[in-house]
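I hope you will forgive my troubling you with a question about protein structure. You will find the record immediately after this paragraph.
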Amino acid sequence: MTENAKTHVILLSCGSFNPITKGHIHMFEKAREYLHKTGRFIVIGGIISPVHDSYGKPGLVPSKHRLTMCQLAVQSSDWIRVDPWECYQQTWQTTCSVLEHHRDLMKRVTGCILSNVNTPSSTPVIGQPQNQAPPVYQNHNNLANKPTAVKLLGKVSESLGKMCCARPSMDRFTFIGETHTHTHTHTNQLRILLLCGSDLLESFCIPGLWKDSDMEVIVGDFGIVVVPRDGADTERIMNHSSVLRKHTENILMVKDDVNHPMSIVSSTKSRLALQHGDGHVVDYLNQPVIDYILQTQLYITASG
């Protein structure tokens, strides 16, 4: 299949990211790898969209911290970006609304996938926190490759365009599901897929948790990419939801090793490790994220 014949994909992940873990980044990498292996898709970008503060989840730290941690976690990625749109709305937004926002945004900006177009000047600056004392938790194997604030901010300054958008080399996109009355010689299909773990997929089966109309839009109009987590039985989950069974063709199950260390990493485990002074937190979180948490004293006590 030629590149023009493949569907170009943006992976969008919604969630608390409280804090963002290595497992979240692993999901993006495994999903892109799997989609490319199918020969039907080209992943041209990834978007992390942290939830609004009013979501009401116990222990949710303010979005200014979660945005900064997310930005630190992907500072070395050339394709994953953090989008603050959800956090800057007046109130909590549904996953369906977030997907529709990004679809409409991409339609308005021809050939340019903007991630931070609505970012106000108060958005946290991507930067490496500078600590006077060495971190309590530190992965010494990665110290040699740890970027300094000067290097990182210089990189951002030099490639601001890249930080804001990913520009695929194509004439135009046709969004999946759109009907056009005119044709073009070079038309590429663009699709926004919701990236999630099997735990979110399982939540679709909980009566009353999701609106049926929202599930129809998420799975039917957009589609989802599911990365297995903690040995979940995805086939059993699929059989428990009529909406999931109805739109099986729009659900892409990543063939990942269920015993992979990253499949059991979670934000909850990371917070507990921080509260208990567990050095294994370096297995859960990237070093810049750990540095920021220690600098701001997030999650260190059970109440935070």
Remarks:
- The two ends are 51 Å apart (CA to CA).
- The first strand starts at residue 7 and ends at 15.
